[in-house]
Give the backbone structure.
Amino acid sequence: MKVNRTLLPLLPLCQRLLPSRLAGLSLTLLKATALEIAILAGHLVLYPSGITSERRPSPVPAQSPADPPDPDLGTGLGPHGTADTARLPTPDKPPVVLLHGFIDNRSIFVLLRRSLAQHGRQQIESLNYSPLTCDIRAAAELLGRHIEEICERTGRQEVDIVGHSLGGLIARYYVQRLGGDVRVRTLVTLGTPHAGTRVVPLMNAHPIVRQMRPGSGVLEELREPAPHCRTRFVSFWSDLDQLMVPLETACIAHPDLLVQNVRVSGIGHLALPVHPAVAAGIRQALDAEEETARAAAHTGGLTVA
């Protein structure tokens, strides 16, 4: 996959003033920074629309035995003539749950959601967790309750999750430590500090930021053995992610997990859930069969350049 962007007006100046190799690096950084600023501006406009929780689709209500059958709803009876709980239609692919990052909301996934829907995902849900969340463990427990409700409502046994930044860490804790691998088929993380990030030390006053630091209790729990974890992991990490220090902290390194780490070149942290090339990689990861996922895990995954 290639990430192609138009050259910035500063290209001729940078080529004259800088050595070719340094100029190339600087131009990539300039373009990535410009893209981040543009995405941030757009996201600030959309942010208010994502503050409230998403409206959940209502299941079709079961009919009373005394009511005449409605041809649009069916009989409302099970195979033996007993009342059956009506559920939403079951598509071929499991529901996708989108989980945002720190001090954010579901509006970050507007473009990714559209991309998934256009490529056959009929059930997509964006979850908000409180901006006052102070504990990854508590947020993971809440995520588990949401997943159970989604499975009950849709009639599915499993879901796929895409988590951006902190959202990916919450989802991973649910999968590894709270038995969520029973419910989560594939977990895709985007710029998630799996090994902890050292960025902005002054933010340590916030307890959830401290949990995202190297050596925190939460991260140490995620390092513990997980020999029976059934979930497939795909971790997208960017070589220009300003919030991952060091950059490789967004990779998953665990001997017991089936992992594909995907390196993304030329874009920053905010672009990961927005860029169309990354969206294509996410769709590919979600649609991959288990055998394909195992092969990709051994080859080290894809590179977006």
